């Protein structure tokens, strides 16, 4: 796994040839149990790396389309799986806990529901106030510039725009770690503001 | 291939499990012939993508340790290969042209020799004044923060530090595209200054 912008954050990626972007997963190493977000299948190397960092206690899935390798990893490593509450009735996996807007999943990790996105309950996660972790709605296809899912994919364009603007209004965002496309490790708030102004 | 911070720049990557970082290559699509820098082996998908963007006319290798897939790609696609002049006597490939400090390889692409690095002639490349493309000396193991090769790997630590400071003194650097480790698409000059101050 690759180190992200903090010593306790790691990621691994997979190139998606249909979209010509990388998909990304995040690991937060912490006392009280490591957290994975939208985990892609792990290579043997990354599986060993993850085990050397203490394995995984919780897996958070931001939306129904980001289950990826979660079921396999949860089974292998005995992790609890948390999913978006608004997608419970159709979620592809059984979850140990369903997450609503503005929940503190573990200390320092807050959910934000992104209303209007591709699925009904998509969540973003704010980690210790300065790192925003996104699933699908907010993404990065051009290095350094955030974009929103195209209108044709959205349940409600205007609600989706409001969701983006809500994220842009969060103060002090340094990093935006996108599930799909390039991460931004610095000046993430600026990029969120540029995106919000463009909509 | 993934789009970088400009519509005419693309990259592809390969995870290196020994270092837990990605290695990166750069493609500049331009009239007068596309340029590849430190090209890794291409997947079939990326090979087709490259061909759809006009193939490749020139391959620039920043140092002897970054030949990677250059010979294969040059053979397949009929590209000319350019290497660092100070490494000519020991370079693993035959080159069509040898590059010295401050050469304009093609219009808008300038070489900078990074004296003191791991190999004698390592080059960085400045693309249209705002995008610095590095080989080995300047790299990024922690998202958003540049670092220098460890002293033990350097021919001359003090010269290497001067080389980094020379790059940090370039005005208007927006992006730093590292051969090894995360790219920085925005505020690259700031990151170069932070690195230079830390040495």
Structure write-up:
- Two copies of one chain form a homodimer.
- Chain A has 199 residues and is α/β, with parallel strands linked by helices.
- Chain A has a single domain, classed as Ribonuclease Z/Hydroxyacylglutathione hydrolase-like (Metallo-beta-lactamase, Chain A), CATH 3.60.15.10.
- Chain A is 20% helix and 31% strand.
- In chain A, strands 1-2-3-4-5-6-7 form a seven-stranded mixed sheet. In chain A, strands 8-9-10-11-14 form a five-stranded mixed sheet, with no helix packed on it. In chain A, strands 12-13 form a two-stranded antiparallel sheet.
- In chain A, β3 (21-28) and β4 form a beta hairpin.
- In chain A, α3 (157-168) runs antiparallel to α4.
- The longest helix of chain A has 12 residues, at 157-168.
- The mean pLDDT of chain A is 98.
- Chain A binds chain B through residues 1-5, 7, 12-13, 15, 17, 20-22, 43, 45, 49, 141-145, 175, 182-187, 190-191, and chain B through 1-5, 7, 12-13, 15, 17, 20-22, 43, 45, 49, 141-145, 175, 182-187, 190-191.
